[in-house]
Amino acid sequence: MIIVMLGAPATGKGTIAGLLEKSLNIPQVSTGDIFRKMIKEKTELGKLADSYISKGNLVPDEVTIKIVEERLNQEDVKNGIILDGFPRTVNQAQALDEILKAKGKKVDLVVNLETPKEEIIERVVSRRVCSNPECKAIYNVIMNPPKVDGICDICGSKVIQRDDDTEETITKRLSNYFELTEPLVEYYKKQEKLYNAVVSKSINKLGKDVAKDIEEYVKKGDF
Ligand code: ADP
Ligand code: ZN
Prior knowledge:
This protein is α/β, with parallel strands linked by helices. The chain has one domain: P-loop containing nucleotide triphosphate hydrolases (Rossmann fold), CATH 3.40.50. Helix content is 47%, strand content 15%. A hairpin with a 7-residue loop joins strand 5 and strand 6 (138-140). Helix 1 (13-24) crosses helix 9, helix 2 crosses helix 3 (44-53) and helix 4 (61-72) runs parallel beside helix 5 (90-102).
């Protein structure tokens, strides 16, 4: 089964995809995580990606599509994948449809997450992540801090703030989202694949609640 996670930054894509990976037993692949790993390893592609990401811009389509295409050829995702953060442009969505078509596959479900803008900004500045690329646990200094300050509960590595999680960068990331990514909602609505969910403390729905709803929906459905 092929699931796409759609939504503005910090709506909970990564958290929900991580929970679904466990409950549905489908690997989560995050393009943001792939880029951060490359940046940490200081590869040429990592340096290129960093020049966009650090400014809150999207990495160019041709680079991103090639990375995902290669990832989709790997053995572990042959029975399914949860794409977290890809596609992010109509161009990427069209490329994905073509890549999958050539494999006799298709996107089965698109989860579209919505969160009020003020909450997004609040979440971004209080978000912390595990610095170990194999772990990637996500924390929030207000809602969900690690048990020991600055140390990951799961693997013991340092918990850090992402370089692009600043108020300045999030403004740019949000405007890029509305300009370039939001049109995908219509794109997948037309394909009748959209599952909409609001993730917001104002209605008492956190990522884990939405993940449970999606799990039930998928297990009930005919995918
Ligand atoms: P968030 O959803 O909080 O922005 P991600 O980890 O998904 O975080 O992405 C971090 C950054 O990586 C994005 O701001 C963007 O610069 C880059 N990125 C991730 N996925 C893509 C993509 N599909 N196309 C272009 N750039 C991407
Ligand atoms: Zn960790």
